[in-house]
What does this fold into?
Amino acid sequence: MKRLSPLKKYSLYIIAGLMIMVTIILFFLVGKGQNSTEPSVLKENKERKLTLEEKQDNVGNEPSSIVVEVKGAVRKPGVYMFQSDARVEEAIKRAGGFTSKADTFEINQAAKLEDSMMIYVRKQGEADTQRQTAATDTSSGNEKSQGVNINQADATELQTINGIGPAKAEAIITYREEHGEFQQIEDLRNIPGFGDKTVERLKSQLTVK
It folds into this structure.
């Protein structure tokens, strides 16, 4: 019986060892490839998430529109649309600018516009006229609050007083013509029909000047 040469004898072992080494190497390479793929996917998902967040932030940061009315001493009064960060100066320009009669003293052109805001530009001298009218109205209101002057009121005005009808109004005028002006409200007691209770009730509505 022939003996096997040492090479042939161990060739099977060598082949088996090589196969085992190749298997281990392939397993190692596949495992490494899988590990390198996973972080790449996570990175891609993270980048996509950041992109969406940036888009949302950009949408939220976009200025919204507001509507403002400009009227008075401007060339093109009207209602205009602006961005929410616009200023009064921009609104005046959109309305054609000030007219030659505009009073710009009280206009703060650096002020920020607000939705539904109304900008009114007065004409020169308009503010003084309004103040004079307000002062007149206040003076008239004070006179009315002090009561009706029985030395000057006519029959119609006297009848606006609660408790004085046509007859009593005429009686007051007649007494005034015959005896002169009233010196005090209590002088009404000298007229028939005006008792103490009636005079006390009328005191808050009458005055003597």
Remarks:
- The longest strand covers residues 65-72.
- The chain has a mean pLDDT of 79.
